[in-house]
Specification:
The protein has 10 helices and 10 strands. The N and C termini lie far apart (59 Å). It has helices at 10-33, 38-46, 65-76, 80-99, 102-109, 223-260, 274-303, 308-339, 345-357, 362-373; strands at residues 115-118, 134-138, 141-151, 159-164, 174-179, 185-187, 202-212, 216-217, 262-263, 268-269. The chain folds into 3 domains: 10-113, Butyryl-Coa Dehydrogenase, subunit A, domain 1; 117-221, Butyryl-CoA Dehydrogenase, subunit A, domain 2 (Beta Barrel), CATH 2.40.110; 224-373, Butyryl-CoA Dehydrogenase, subunit A, domain 3 (Up-down Bundle), CATH 1.20.140.10. The strands form 3 sheets. The chain has a 4-stranded mixed beta sheet, with helices on one face. A 4-stranded antiparallel beta sheet has the order 2-3-7-6, with no helix packed on it. Strands 9-10 form a two-stranded antiparallel ribbon. It is globular and about 80 Å long. The protein is an alpha+beta fold. α3 (65-76) runs parallel beside α6, α6 (223-260) packs parallel to α8 and α8 packs antiparallel against α10. Bound molecules: flavin-adenine dinucleotide. Flavin-adenine dinucleotide binds next to β1, β3, α9 and α10.
Amino acid sequence: MSDVSVALPAYMAALTPVLNDVVAPAAAEIDRGGTYPRAAMDALGRAGLLGLISAPEVGGQGEGHRAATAVVQAVAEHCGSTAMVLMMHYAGAAVLEAFGPTGVRERIAAGDYVTTLAFSEVGSRSMFWAPMSTAVAGGDTVRLDAQKSWVTSAGQADGYVWSSMPVDAEGASTIWLVPADAANLKVGAPFDGLGLRGNSSSPMSASGVEVPASAMLGTDGGGFDVMLGVVLPYFQVMNAGFSIGTANAATAKAAAHAAATRFEHLDQSVADNPVARANVARMRIRTDGAEALLLDTLTALETGRADATLRVLEVKALASETAIDVTDLAMRVSGGAAFRKEVGVERNFRDARAASVMAPTTDTLYDFIGRIACGLPLF
Ligand SMILES: Cc1cc2nc3c(=O)[nH]c(=O)nc-3n(C[C@H](O)[C@H](O)[C@H](O)COP(=O)(O)OP(=O)(O)OC[C@H]3O[C@@H](n4cnc5c(N)ncnc54)[C@H](O)[C@@H]3O)c2cc1C
């Protein structure tokens, strides 16, 4: 008899025990205590998954958008905080793969280095493409001064992919690698968020942080192209994967709750009620619709399709709003039981809300997509 089973990609096979043994068992406590998922990041590193998108020449797995998105989505089905920390690591790793020093790339591939993006600033808020922080050259070093408003893995990452205004050149920004142990780099108050509570998404400040001139990633003034060309595609598809994973988890838990919960006096389950079933169906359809767009976006990226940029913009907006709606329905379907933690969907409900306000936010994406549709310039 021929074997018709479809083999899991090696990276998904490597992920399964990490999910079962480390990520899933810790998820509720990470949320409750707001604790950083260090054990999960260590386990992902040991499984070769922090180096998923690192090139084979530095010891990585040489994967791209599709694999990173699949891994983030699968992790999000169990723990939103871990998924977001991993997602921001991949976003930073993509920049370091393109422009970073070999030693750091080797450490990422070896699972021994966590990175993230430090783009958002107090001054320009969600308009990350317009940093107001400064980079001033002095001999072989550059002095960075900044007020970063949000950095996932703040105080936990080994290095920050960091934006500033250019040193000398024209252009909106320049990107740097700032090591975690740089003097005068400070992490703000501990993160106490509504959701994604284990993300350590604190503000950070730099007051005269000195980095070598070689810490520049790309060219002076070339940050905008790095943000749009390298970061944005990864960020958008992985963020969509995060939202879909969260919506998937909420749909599965709400459906299981509806099927298992009984009105004893009627000898019926909640799922015997057609209104509840229709709500579960709406959750399933919305989630699957977002996933279909995500898969199409990945194909558009991989094949260089003419509509790839539009899809990349659309997919995060659709997925994040879908996750908000689906997790809201999960709360409704699961009733008062969901208001406590026993069904598990209230964590998904809180976690799902972040993606919509992560830049580019849904409202900004609507503006961009509307501009494209109306033939107006993006900026
Ligand atoms: C959990 C979490 C983790 C994060 N991690 C990181 C990270 O690792 N690195 C990083 O750099 N940043 C990170 N961020 C920051 C994020 O990317 C955004 O910059 C931040 O959430 C924006 O919040 P704000 O209060 O500054 O929004 P504001 O800029 O004040 O926006 C407020 C509202 O105005 C809307 N708005 C703004 N501009 C427009 C526009 N042009 N058109 C229409 N509406 C608009 C926004 O959509 C939003 O609804 C994180 C955020 C969260 C929530």
